Amino acid sequence: MNKRRNWTWYLTPGLVFQSVLIGGGYGTGAEIARYFGSRGLLGGVLALAAAAAGWAALCAVTFEFVRVFRTYDYGSMMRRLLGRAGFLYDLCFYAMLLLVLGVVNATAAAMVHALTGLPPWSGVALLSLGVVLLVLRGTEAIEKALSLWAYVLYAVFLLFLAAVFLRFGDAVAAELRRGEIRPGWLSGGLRYASYNLICVSMILYTLRDLQTRREAVTCGILAGLLGAAPALPLLLAMGCDFPAVLASETPVTAIFQRLDMPWLYLLFEIVLFGTLIETAAGFIKALEDRIERALFRSCGPGRYPPAGTDPSSWTWLARPLITGAVTALGICVSTFGLTELIDKGYGAICYGALLLFALPMLTRGVRMIRRAGR
C-alpha cells in the first residue's frame, strides 16, 4: 500500500474520470464551441474553469462519501444516499448508458468512414471488439488502460496546441487580448458540467485504496481539473480564426484545414477513437459492478469482494454475457442517428442526474459524512 502512495496514485481516479468523460464529444469540437467558445475565447476559459470547479466539488464530496461508507459501486452509493429511492438513479443511468453507447458507436462509424473510406459498420465492429476485450480483462486492466491512454491523449493534445501556436500564435494571443466575455459563461460552464455528472459515479472502483479524508478530497479536486484539461487546448486552438472556426459544423476539422498537417490529424483521430472505447468500457464496467454487488450482497454490510477475487461463475459467464448484450444494444441504438441522440437525450438525463445525484450528495451527503465523522 505504501508503494502506491506517490503522486501518480492521486492522479488515477482523475485520469479514469477524464477517459470516461470525453467520449465522442471532443472528436468534432462541437461541444467545446457550443458551451465554451460561444461565450468568447476568454469567456470560454472562464466557463471551462466553472465546469472544472463544479466537477472538483462534486468529486471531492463523492469520493469522501465512498471512503466513509465503502460504497464502491454506484448502486450501493445511491442506496446509502437516497434509501429506497435509489432505484430512480438506476433508471437514469440505464438511459445514459444506452445514449452514450449509441453516440460512441455512431461517432466511431462516422470517424472510420471519413478517415479510411471503409463502410460505417467497420468502425462499429472495431469499437465493439476493443470494448469487449477491455472489459473482459477485468478491473485492474481497465484502470491501467484508461490511465495510460489519458497520458497519450494529453501528449497529443499538447502537440496539437503547440502546432497551432507555432503557426497562429499571434492570432490566438490577439483574440485573448480582446477579452471578450459574453453573458452566460457561468451558466454555460455549469450546464456542461451537469451533462457529465453520471461519469463521477462510474469510477468508484478506483477509490478502494482511499484511507483518509485528505486523500479523498485531493483525488476529487484533481479529478475535476483533469476532466476539464483536454478541453482547454481545443478551446485555445479555436482562436486561430475564432469566428470562422466557431461557425463551422466541425470546428476541429476547420482548425486542421488551416494547419494542413494530415499526419497530426490522423494521430488526433486515432487517440480520440481510443477514448470512444474507454467511454463505452467505463459505462459497461460500472453496470457490471452494480449487478455484481447486488448479486453478492451476502458478503455483508459495508463489505465488497476485493479486486481480482470475483466468483468464478461471474467471471467466466455473467460478465461476457452482459458485455456482449449491452454492446449489441448500443449498436442498435446508434442507428437512430448521432444528432437526434444528443439533442433529445442528454437534456432530460442531465436533470435527472442533477436532482438524484449532485444535489443530494452536496447536501444530505455532506451531512451524512459529518455525522459519521462525529
Structural write-up:
The chain has 16 helices and no strands. The model is unreliable at 298-312 (pLDDT under 50). By secondary structure, the chain is an all-alpha fold. The chain has helices spanning 7-22, 25-28, 30-35, 41-69, 74-82, 87-116, 120-136, 139-178, 185-195, 213-228, 231-237, 242-247, 251-259, 262-295, 312-334, 338-373. The protein is globular and about 55 Å long.
Summarize, please:
Helix content is 78%, strand content 0%. It is mainly α and 374 residues long.
Q: What is the arithmetic mean of pLDDT?
A: 82
**Major sheet, described briefly?**
none
Question: Spans with pLDDT under 50 lasting ≥5 residues?
Answer: 298-312
The CATH superfamily name is Hydantoin permease
CATH level 1 name: Mainly Alpha
Task: Classify the helix fraction into a percent range.
Answer: over 70%
Quaternary state, please? Answer: single chain
CATH architecture: Orthogonal Bundle
Report the total helices: 16
Number of domains: 1
